[in-house]
Write a structure and sequence with these properties.
Blueprint (H helix, E strand, L loop, with lengths): L26 H22 L5 E3 L4 E3 L10 H12 L3 H14 L7 E3 H19 L2 H14 L1 H4 L9 E3 L5 E2 L2 E2 L1 H5 L2 H11 L3 H14 L12 E2 L9 E2 L6 H14 L2 H17 L1 E4 L2 E4 L1 E3 L5 E3 L2 E2 L5 H7 L3 H18 L5 E3 L4 E4 L7 H13 L2 H17 L1 E2 L2 E2 L2 E3 L4 E2 L6 H4 L1 H9 L11 E2 L5 E3 L4
Antiparallel strand pairs: 1-2, 3-4, 4-5, 6-7, 8-11, 9-10, 11-12, 13-14, 14-15, 16-17, 18-19, 20-21
Helix pairs in contact: 1-17, 2-3, 2-4, 4-5, 4-8, 5-8, 8-9, 10-11, 12-13, 12-14, 13-14, 14-15, 14-17, 15-17
Length: 453
């Protein structure tokens, strides 16, 4: 039974059965509300930003993502498996038809290797997993082939951050654990689908090469030169730009049964729990420390780190993971919507924006898949209702420019379509097209195992 940061093993036959809602909550009705919101937002995207990377939900325009002025249909690709899970089949097919008619990666433009793998390669693979259309797999392979030189140029197997899709020109040798190590599930899935081991092998080499450079106390810093292996910082953090490296160690084990990935995950987790977990006030938090000494650098928390409680629970550290998720839920209760930055020592925001993030809902979803306790579904429902109250704009869902004043910004990130709308639906709707027993969702929420046709 397989899980990842975005998917989970349930702990027994009884735990796999849906539990009745507490008085006053009808989960199926709430699930239908989620689907209605997805359809409403999609219709605005279809009308106002079709084939564009991202809609601007306040003004009703659009914006490109990786390549300035050029669009690769980012939101469309990210939305596909969510639409399919919701049985919005016409909307799903419209997206597939656009890809087959218009998507072309032969572009003289530079993209982020990391973002392109988790969003576009992963999105195409999950859509292919849903419908089996060979064109989607071929597009994913073409894109991955254009990204491979970023891995091959380094003698250490650590990819550069940026690559030109047409020329292969590289940039960004100073990189970080997340951008180095968050590709084994997408590339491994592509290797299995195409019977070509090159993709998995490149991703695995990057994971191992990064791990081998940890300090004597077992921690990784957050900046490194991919050509020399020289560390460029001393900060160890579970947040960006290190976060998804740790989950992909676990995911390499869960999705492919790679025992070396499991051993690396356990070693990194043990060091993190020893040197970075601290009690501040009534809650446990993970602080940033010097990667060689373990000395504290900062207690400031990044909202992106709130996924980590779910990952800890998946890996067997349920008590620590649940405590950390509840700590973040207490912050959500304080501000209504999570700020991008929070200081638990002062109880104040350090960054007042919110980028329409899914991480707390993701963590609660993973906890719920383990134990099916209603606490977690209620936490997800609170997250959904806060988003619907504060982030809903005229033409879609918008980021928050200031969580204290609830002022919106004119931006809807592509991951919104792939992540929290999927977690809400799967948690509330008893989805007929999802295998709750055996599944895997990537760091971007793409379902690479567990879709039921």
């Amino acid at each position: 039974m397989i899980i990842g940061r975005r998917g989970l093993i349930a702990g027994g036959a009884a735990a796999l059965l849906p539990l009745p809602a507490e008085a006053g909550e009808n989960w199926r009705v709430l699930g239908e509300d989620v689907r209605a919101e997805m359809r409403w937002a999609w219709n605005h995207y279809r009308k106002r930003a079709w084939g564009k990377d991202q809609i601007t939900p306040v003004s009703g325009g659009s914006e490109s993502f990786s390549i300035k002025g050029h669009h690769l249909g980012l939101s469309l690709i990210e939305a596909l498996d969510t639409l399919w899970l919701m049985e919005l089949d016409k909307e799903f097919q419209d997206g597939v038809d656009w890809i087959k008619a218009h998507l072309d990666f032969d572009v003289d433009g530079e993209v982020s290797v990391f973002e392109t793998i988790i969003r576009l390669v992963g999105g195409l693979l999950s859509a292919w997993h849903a419908c089996g259309d060979p064109v989607l797999l071929a597009k994913a392979k073409d894109l991955a082939d254009r990204l491979m030189p970023s891995f091959e140029a380094s003698p250490l197997g650590l990819p550069h951050r940026f690559i030109n899709l047409r020329t292969g020109a590289l940039r960004g040798s100073e990189t970080n654990p997340a951008e180095i190590g968050s590709c084994i599930t997408e590339f491994g899935t592509l290797s299995k689908a195409t019977a070509d081991p090159r993709y998995f092998d490149a991703a695995k080499k990057a994971l191992v090469s990064m791990f081998e450079r940890r300090s004597k106390i077992g921690l990784l810093a957050d900046r490194i030169d991919c050509m020399t292996g020289e560390w460029k910082s001393r900060r160890a953090t579970i947040g960006p730009p290190s976060d998804s490296y740790y989950e992909y160690l676990w995911d390499g084990w869960q999705l492919f049964g790679d025992v070396e990935c499991l051993a690396m995950y356990r070693a990194c987790t043990a060091a993190i729990l020893q040197y970075q977990e601290v009690e501040i006030g009534d809650h446990f938090w993970f602080v940033d420390v010097d990667f060689e000494t373990g000395g504290k650098i900062s207690a400031e928390q990044d909202e992106l780190s709130s996924f980590y409680g779910g990952l800890l629970a998946q890996g067997g550290n349920r008590r620590d993971g649940e405590a950390y998720t509840r700590a973040w839920d207490s912050v959500a209760d304080r501000f209504g919507i999570l700020p991008e930055g929070y200081d638990p020592e002062t109880g104040k925001t350090s960054h007042v924006t919110n980028d329409l993030r899914p991480e707390l809902a993701d963590a609660a979803f993973n906890h719920w898949l383990i134990d099916r306790r209603e606490e977690w579904r209620h936490m997800i429902a609170k997250h959904y209702r806060a988003m619907k109250r504060w982030n809903r704009a005229e033409y879609g869902y918008a980021v928050m420019a200031d969580v204290t004043t609830k002022k919106q910004g004119d931006h809807c990130p592509g991951y919104w379509w792939s992540e929290q709308m999927k977690y809400y639906w799967l948690a509330f709707a008893d989805c007929r097209r999802f295998d709750y027993r055996k599944n895997y969702l990537s760091t971007e929420g793409n379902v690479l195992l567990g879709l039921k046709r």
